[in-house]
Design a protein that fits this description.
The chain is mainly alpha-helical. The protein contains 8 helices and 2 strands. The protein is extended and about 60 Å long.
């Protein structure tokens, strides 16, 4: 989904991550500085400058005087960026809901079970004798009773 969204918006992974970070901060009422992007994305100051230049050039962000420190530059999303991301994701979400709607209830349950087993199979655990696959494939009541009986 992220690759398709990035492609439709003409962005690379770092740009898309920066835009998501910017929009999330904006929803919380926070105005970011370039250093916030550097910390969040673990990139250098020079890379952040180029990144912000691209976001501004492509209409996704604007540089503003930071309200808390007038000597500092804040980065804010444009209305276009919010509309573009929501529009792209909305279409994708509609297609996903439509695809899920083609499945019967038993197919959805089987799919959910499969996905949960796959997620657990790649999770790392340090518990001796723990089997993510065994614990995720048995019914919850059985898994709970086994754990309580030490088997």
């Amino acid at each position: 989904m992220r690759a398709q969204t990035r492609g439709s918006m003409g962005m690379n992974e770092t740009d898309m991550s920066a835009l998501r970070f910017l929009l999330a901060a904006h929803r919380k009422g926070k105005i970011l500085r370039q250093r916030d992007f550097a910390e969040e994305l673990c990139i250098s100051n020079a890379s952040v400058s180029a990144l912000i230049d691209r976001l501004c050039r492509d209409g996704y962000a604007d540089r503003v005087v930071h309200p808390a420190d007038r000597r500092s530059v804040g980065i804010v999303p444009t209305e276009y960026s919010d509309t573009e991301v929501r529009g792209t994701l909305h279409k994708m979400h509609e297609r996903m809901i439509e695809a899920a709607g083609t499945l019967s209830e038993s197919e959805r349950l089987a799919t959910a079970k499969f996905l949960n087993v796959m997620i657990r199979s790649v999770q790392i655990t340090d518990e001796p004798g723990h089997s993510a696959l065994r614990d995720s494939t048995m019914p919850q009541s059985t898994a709970s009773s086994r754990q309580g009986h030490g088997t």
